[in-house]
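User: I'm putting together notes for a lab meeting next week and I want to include a structural view of one of the chains we've been expressing. I don't have a solved structure, so I'd like a prediction I can at least talk through. The sequence is below, exactly as it appears in our construct file.
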Amino acid sequence: MKRRARGFTLLELLVAIAIFAVVGVMAYGGLNTVIKQSAIVQAQTEQLAQTQAGLRQMRSDLTFAVDRAARDALGGEVPEFAGGGLNLLTLTRLGAPNPWDAAQSQLELVRWRVHAGNLERAQFIPADGAIGNSATDPDWHIILRDVQHLNLLFFDMNNQSMADWPPINQPSAGLPKAVEVQISLKNMPPLRMTVAPVADWPPPVPTTAPPATGTVDTEVGGRAQ
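Assistant: Thanks for the context. Below is the predicted structure for the 225-residue chain, given as structure tokens.
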């Protein structure tokens, strides 16, 4: 006599489906949390990379600043280093980009500002005659976004800090001894870095022109013989 195969009852099927649904919801919730956390970590990593790149650019500008005033389009003098007030930072620096190895100066004029919550930078090559012309607008590039607070402190040779440079009583003070940058960005803790410009650049190597043909490069009594 054959025994009939016993199947699942309706109640057992309902219980199994309910357990499967609960496990599926829990698995989906965990996966969704992992995806959200991954997106948050990726966004924070990208913001950190952008912040590091922006601060490296500002550190480079401050490090390679030179004590050399520029000229605007009308021949007026642009201070070699000015910071604070309405203009966040203006300086002349070495290391102007020259990808085509053209015969040009290595100096460039750099300006920084905070505009609409963004930290922006503009560069002028060559340094002389690049600004002061109302027909030409600076080409501002966004370096950092969502800037909530940015403050600069300038230190003189006596290690005295001040919010503006040059000091009111020293309009020709040249470069500060160091600059402290304090910045706060959205979703990041406050950051601070201190940069000291290169104090003394090596003097240029003198070039001596070869003597003219038929002359002797000696002097007696102030006249060539």
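A couple of points you could mention at the meeting. The chain is about 25% helix and 25% strand. The CA atoms of residues 47 and 183 lie 14 Å apart.

User: Perfect, that's what I needed.
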